[in-house]
Amino acid sequence: MAPLAPAFHKMASPLKSRTNALLNEQGKLRSVHQSITDGILVFGNNGFIISANPAAEAILKRAESGLAGSRSTGIDGLDEIIARAELIASDDMVSCWEQKNCVHEDCPSFHSDDRRCWLQCGTFCHDEIQGSFTQKRDACERCSVYMANGCVKADAEAEGRSYSISVSPILDDLGNPEGRLAVLHDMTDERHRSRQLGLLYEIANTIAVNDSIEDSLRRSLNLCIKAMKATSGSIMLLNDNGELALAAHEGLPPDTVTGFRQILGEGIAGWVAQTGEALLLTDDDPDPRFSGVKKIRDAVCIPIRDENAVVGVLSLNERQAGEGFTHSSLEFLGPVSQQIGMALTRARLHEKISREKEK
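Now predict its structure.
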């Protein structure tokens, strides 16, 4: 055996180097996996979670150790996708020759019943004949046909946040499935800003094209109710007597709105108008300052300001589908109520100028 020792040593040295190189690459991949700000979940072929990065742990509010071995993420839309036998049903797949306007009838994918062209050898792509999946996988996984036929994109809600979800297969070098990769991108703030800007534009346009202030306020209130999925709401404005009077309302019982007035500083709306502070009222976090007021399960009350002072109050009640208002609702409605106030001031000024001209 002694003569063989140098040969074994010679073989072991490069093997050790390759092993260390693989471990080093594995460490780098793990670092990248851990540092990505989108949530990343890896599933096995059996649908069980194998790993989750810190962003996914934060989204799902569960540690990787608690997620591993589970089929449930708590996000219904994602769980439904992962449970599918095939991510995309064959009938829903696109044809690569149609997608790419291909005229190469000799291509094995042309008019093929199997539209997973990435698994077929000898396909004609990028102006040349391609080899096996192993040889062309990098190009395939970037291709729009692969993305359409092999991956799923969906939107989902969880814990009051909005997510864009992407699920793709994990394939070995022969194209065989080894699991699935899910990426969760938090779209809440982006959608929040988009919805807010859209609502601001609609309110500004509504008030600009309406001659009637009352009609403008009613339409603005309805836009807010729709945007926040509320069941009812009101806009109250301060009058010359320092009282809040209903200027617009929707979904409120008739017996509660007829001739309704509220003194500045009294009740919920009166307090908001006096302090200039927005208020969130929920079952989970009741406000002791209003313990004597009729119990309100779910509402927001926002001061309406012009450039100088509070001129009224916007109130919305009980979101639909049990979603409930949150502090982000207050953040969303702050600029909206200010837009109503500034537009209202301009409308009043325009109305005053028009009356003076008529004289």
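DSSP finds twelve helices and 13 strands in the chain.
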